Amino acid sequence: MMEETNHSEENNLENNQLTDADATGNTIALSGLYENWFLDYASYVILDRAVPHINDGFKPVQRRILHSLKEMDDGRYNKAANVIGNTMKYHPHGDASIGDAMVQIGQKDLLIDCQGNWGDPVTGDAAAAPRYIEGRLSKFGLEVVFNADTTVWQLSYDGRNKEPVTLPVKFPLLLTQGAEGIAVGLATKIMPHNFVELIDGSIQVLKGERPNIFPDFPTGGIADVSNYNEGQRGGKIRVRAKIEERDKKTLAITEIPFGTTTGALIESIVSANDKGKIKIKKIEDNTAKNVEIIVHLAPGISPDVTIDALYAFTSCESSISPNTCVIKDNKPYFMSVNDILTENTLNTKALLKQELEIRLHELQEKIFFSSLLKIFIQEGMYKHPDYEGAGDFDTVVNVLNTLFSPFFPEFYREILPEDYKKLIDKPMSSITRFDVKKADEQMKSLADEIKAVKKNLKHLVDFTIQWFEHLRSKYAKGRERKTALRVFDKVEATQVALANAKLYVNREEGFIGTAMKKDEFVSECSDIDDIIVFRQNGKYAVVKVQDKVFVGKDIIHVAVFKKGDERTTYNAIYQDGTNGTTYVKRFSVTGVTRDKEYDISKGTKGSKLLYFTANPNGEAEVVHVQLKPHTSLRKLSFDLNLAEIAIKGKASLGNIVSKHIVKKVTFKNAGVSTLAGRKIWFDEVLRRLNVDERGTFLGEFDGDDKLLTVFDDGSYELSNFDLNNHFDEKMIRIEKFIPTWVYTAVHKDGKTGAFYVKRFVFEDLQLGKRVSFINEEAGSQLILLTNHPNAVVNVLQLKGKSQVEESVEQPLNELIDVKKIKAQGNRLSFHNVQQVTALTQDIDLTKLDSMESPTSGAADGNSTASGNDTIKLEITNPQDIQTDEKGQTELF
Known about the structure:
Layout: H1 7-24, H2 30-50, H3 60-72, E1 78-79, H4 80-87, H5 95-107, E2 112-115, E3 134-137, H6 139-144, E4 152-155, E5 162-166, H7 173-177, E6 179-182, E7 187-190, H8 195-206, E8 222-227, E9 236-240, E10 242-247, E11 250-255, H9 262-274, E12 280-285, E13 293-297, H10 303-313, E14 317-320, E15 325-328, E16 331-334, H11 337-378, H12 385-388, H13 393-404, H14 417-424, H15 428-432, H16 436-458, H17 460-475, E17 484-485, H18 493-496, E18 501-506, E19 511-513, E20 520-525, E21 530-535, E22 539-544, E23 549-550, E24 555-561, E25 569-575, E26 582-587, E27 598-599, E28 608-615, E29 622-627, E30 637-641, E31 647-648, E32 655-658, E33 662-669, E34 678-683, E35 688-690, E36 696-701, E37 707-711, E38 715-719, E39 731-736, E40 742-748, E41 755-761, E42 770-772, E43 781-786, E44 792-799, E45 804-811, E46 826-827, E47 832-838
Parallel strand pairs: 8-17, 26-31
Antiparallel strand pairs: 1-3, 2-3, 4-5, 6-7, 8-9, 9-14, 10-11, 11-13, 12-13, 15-16, 18-19, 18-20, 19-23, 21-22, 21-24, 22-27, 25-26, 25-28, 26-32, 29-30, 29-33, 34-35, 34-36, 37-38, 37-39, 38-42, 40-41, 40-43, 41-46, 44-45, 44-47
Helix pairs in contact: 3-4, 4-5, 8-11, 8-17, 11-16
């Protein structure tokens, strides 16, 4: 927090410096004055305003507020205005800066027990005026932050009061609360971390291990900390809102990213909708105690694509750059959060040692004086004639030294005159009523406590670990991690941008753009798309979409370009300008440099394009080739099936069609896709589909193939294999959907508590529709689901009146035939089932040669399948299939 500048101090500094200059008679250059003043000001801002101290984690204004709260503490709430007024004794700035800092501390819900409207950092609502809100130190703050005996004090700015240099905080408070400040020439941005994880990390430090902690934000959300860099400069954290799909028309934002508010988030969504980046019907803010922003989608808009678009174009995702800077040894230091935790832990250990040593001294003094008093009374020294006849204090001291001399070895230190003074000040009534037995008991108790304190000092590491475990057991409830840590996939804005513009082309003049409404319409696009353009001369390029841009005359193909698109295949036949040889090539364009011109042919002078098509799914047509008549030619025309041509890179030369001059190439008939099914993997970390071989292989997918996803509540859903799909965290199974494949489920009925087994096939549902395949009674549970046709389970059950434990191996296909999906099934056992464990592993469906049901009966309840059905498996290693792209074959 930046406080107001103390202009009076600066003026005094200026006057002093000018006076010194005049006194010495030396002339000080004006530039030198400004340099000194600037350095003084910079040092002041860094040390006394903007950057927290490593020991207690506070900036000066925060430390002074807490000191005032402690000074005013009587167990009752104090008006914030009163606390601000008292803090002004220590803080040489305005009340506004103190009030803002106090509200920020209170909103972190750790050190101040707040009452009234202290604002809400999630919604951005401001706190009420200081005269309306109250606060007092929390129990945690009282226990952890203060100890007058271990505090180092200094005079306040006006010399009238004493304030702490740093507070003796016995906890990594800086990392718990986080901090942010802008000084002169540097800044600090320390992320908040989880309370419990910091305790665990401190215990690691005490055990000699290096901790590794990550941020935890009070707003929750999701964070990718893979580039956190221990909170140092150069690191980065990506934070996202938590977005749930309530149904296919509704999204709900239930947690927001750190650093934003619900109001700002809604504004960014509305702005993205106005700019055409996303398309929503309406948005509702239902935030009360918990965040709930409801986004209603426009008809026909994909919720999965919209989620990605929200991350790409709104404040639902943001990037935070940490910069951990602290004050240490009266200088700014850039440190990692793990090193700060280590130092905080060692500082806590040192403070606990200091407290133990102070307590040991107090106990020793108590037992010292108790022993002194006991001997004084038991030996009757108070009745000794020399003592009674002593006239002054010095004589008394000499007499008592003589009387106590036989007992000197019993004391842990020398008896001082002030000890005697304390002794003789005891009233006679207390001496005559002195209870030796009670005194012995008290001294024994003190001795036992001294023994315990010395033991703790000897085993200081264990004692410090106990301290942190005590804090965890007492204060950790409700402070569990709020921010989920995940690795994010990179959302390509061009892939999720809404088609909010229309693309037009003027083929002859060579212009394309979104503002050419009188020209030929090509397709819808977004205003951040790239456009690929092919021209008649064989040149092609990728350009950014614009209102109107010249790309070259005689355009033969223009389309939205998708980076990494391996499915779109271009079929081309061209004649080389050098020797007249005609080549055919099939290629894809997965990545190019924007605005750079490429050539389908060799690029030699006189080369020309004879035939060109663009095919979205690798289709290969049949073309008719006519040769220019020549005396040596007997066959002047032939058909060329492009399916026989391998797909190669965009820079490949291609295969020779003919070395003779080709007169014309014409389309004959359409073909089918020559591409294999699209191989899809599921990345368990990102919970997304991919074609990059990350995660679990799900198989090859074509056209209308679907994915089966099963959830832990006993429901399932079918989806397509679009890479933009999102998958619920509660999903327990994902695999290629085979409509005839039989599954076996064991489930528990919520009403009766009985366990049932059923065999069924999943029905071919509408995409995105979620249906339960177990009893929907409250309390029903899916215990086990397997795709093995001869599944065997181990059933642990209690049998008979005496409830004897019994373990049984049970083949499930012996209990029931294949039924419809809504059937309840048959009882697994009529005894008290305790546990069901699968003894057979699932079948890897990606290795099946024939995707057929392992049963011979239909799923109508009349199946006659036996337990001896077999599955035909044939595993093919795709690495055994190789294609040589270097060879050229002359077809005719």
